[in-house]
Amino acid sequence: MDVSILVGGQAGDGIKQAGVIIAKIFNEIGYHVFIYDDYQSLVKGGHNFSIVRVSDEKVHSHNDHVDLLVAFNQDTIEKHKWRTKETIYDSDKVKTDGTGIPAQSWAKGKGSALLRNSIFIGAICKYTGVDLKIAESIIKNSFHKLLDENMEALKFGYDSVEKKHDFKKIGEPREVMTGNEAISLGAAAAGMKLYIAYPMTPASSILHYLAKYGEKLGVVTVQEENEIAVANMAVGSCFAGVRTMVGTSGGGFALMTETVSLCAQSETPVLFVVSQRAGPSTGVPTYTMQADLKFVLNAGHGDVTRVVIAPGDAEESYLLTGKTMNLAWKYQIPGFVLVDKHISESTFSAELGEVKPEEPKLWDGKGEYGRYKLTEDGISPMAFPGDVYTCKGSSYEHDEKGLTVEEETDMINKMQEKRLRKMEVLREELKGEETVKVYGNPDSKVTLLTWGSTKGACIEAAKELGLKVVQLLYLEPMPMWELEKHLKGRVIAVEVNATGQLADILGIKEKILKYDGRPFTPEELKKKLEEIL
Amino acid sequence: MNLETGVKNTWCPRCGHFSILAAAKAVIQELIEKGERPEDFAIASGIGCHAKIVDYINVNSFYSIHGRVPPTISGMKIANPDLTVIGFAGDGDGYGEGVAHIVFAAKRNIDITMIIHNNRIYGLTTGQFSPTTPQGQKTKSTPYGNPEYQLNPIKLMLGSGATFVARTSSFDLNHMKEMIRQGIAHKGFAVIDVVEPCISFFNATDYIRKNAYVMENHDSSDINKAWERAGEWNYTLEGKIPIGIFYKEDKPTFDELLLKGKNLRKS
Q1: Distance between CA atoms of A186 and A354, rounded to whole angstroms?
Q2: Does the structure's ipTM exceed the value 0.95?
Q3: Whether the predicted model's global pTM rises above the 0.95 cut
Q4: A301 shares its domain with A183
Q5: Could you give the domains of chain B?
Q6: Which residues in B lie closer than 8 A to residue A194 (C-beta atoms)?
């Protein structure tokens, strides 16, 4: 069973929320869900749509063709009629074939045009054969206004269409969350107490989520005057011993790069979330791209040590964000969660793994404390202001006490080498961890290489074509030990950027790229693969 | 308490920073003797001659980067409000590179103290004009005279909502100590603009010595009077330089409003 429903209308119609409620209804009866949200850089008007995919198997992507189109306005028909055979529409606003419901006039008669959402949700329940009670209880938990009217609207919609499918309960509900929510929860589970940001799409919803639910999660949020302040405030709070995450997109991250370098030199474990969008510069701000890979891997002047991960769905976002928080603190290096709009703002079914804070190497309180003690593994025991006298962090090259050195070339060498040694130890540790995932046909002579949000489309297209897929979870340190094992025969890199940045780094010649701001769908990727295989 | 680090001081002889260092150390020493835990002090500096001060005081410190002291020490304060955090910045650092940060720290009224080493020139980069260099002044980057008008940081801070705005002179050690003492004691954002010479690149020693005077009978609770007094000297090389507290106001601080009694470090 694999059904897709597209809901489309104007910004302000509540399309996004309708998509989430539809997904939650199917989640409730045990289906896997995925939502792709498409919207523009405006607040009212324009065209917004959500594609909700429901399946009895795991899904991390949407398809071009949908089974049902739900049209709030005429624009939705003009733009998406090609995708579908069946349509439910607002007959007060739309002229087309299919099942019309006089939604606008009914909703306005009850006091709010927003009731149209519930009318169409009721209609979808009937169409798919889902018990209306499920929708009722989800709406009761989601809406706080006009509750009686919403219940009536559900019923009105339900009674207005014919039943076409017969979805039955197949299992228990899972978590349903966006990538950004999963990142927030993963960081909180790994001990984050402070989140600092300046708003920027597609990272803003981390700030919104944590501002709203922070109290429950034990996380305080601060919105700062700009991204430079954000990154430096995080340096201050981490130096004072509090696990801190910051989030932004490419343009905001550009302002933070000065501080990335400071984190490396001062050995301050700030966790950065960089959620990419279509660039360069302002680009296409509400659409997706994976074009900041080289930027994030190389950000910061000097020899910067770092750990960079690239989750491909909500479950990985949760686990790997938690993992990266712990690694950043263990190795006292900046950590990076590199995602893009297609992960940050898409909604996934998720079963969350286990994440907990792991204690870094702490000072034993004996003798005189030095923030940068030279050790075999390069990791100096941590202590924080308030607990110790004295702890001195520095952006300058320094001695073991954190005091500036300029003339002592021997100490300069030792400190540079100490920082590099930590990366060697980290690399060894990661050899025992899952740094890549392999899917599909292990005997295939063709391997698709994916990172981040192209995972879903790659897995599905590969399954249909009998190919192997290798997904990179860590980008720094680059797990060459795994890639050497798995990247054999013909390798095709699949990336959403114009130059094939990962392919370039790894010297892979063959690549399938997309750079119009839209993610790959499995159908589209399969077609492109068929053309070259 | 031994606040010496043993690091060799590399400021130019007779540099104004020496007296700021002496005053800051004396006040920290005093507070420790009165019972404050030495562990609870955290200071930070930016980049420039002033910034070496963290190497010269043996308390917890962070040697930050140019202009970024206010967010750095704000982060420390939010992480652990039990800390007494003091930031040091130069005029280029605090009012130039990081001007957005000092404005917003003042706007938020976060409970931190900023001490600005205002010698009105870029010293460590060997003598370019700064935000407070008088218009017309010849500097390395303006050999025919500075075409920019100088900023009045007292007015900037008053306009930004700072709840403790003071000026002192590097030639009046006792006054400077008193300003730092009161700035640290103030619950909220405190800024102390220290007018000093740069011996090597803008030596206004005689002018400052001759013209700085302590304000008397000034009502520091009146924002309009504060604004008036702030306009008395416009960071030129002419006229008298009033020093003292221009403005002081008590209102809830950002860390109190944000944290509601929590201590993130200790939770």
Answers
A1: 9
A2: yes
A3: yes
A4: yes
A5: 17-259 (3.40.50.970)
A6: 78-79, 264
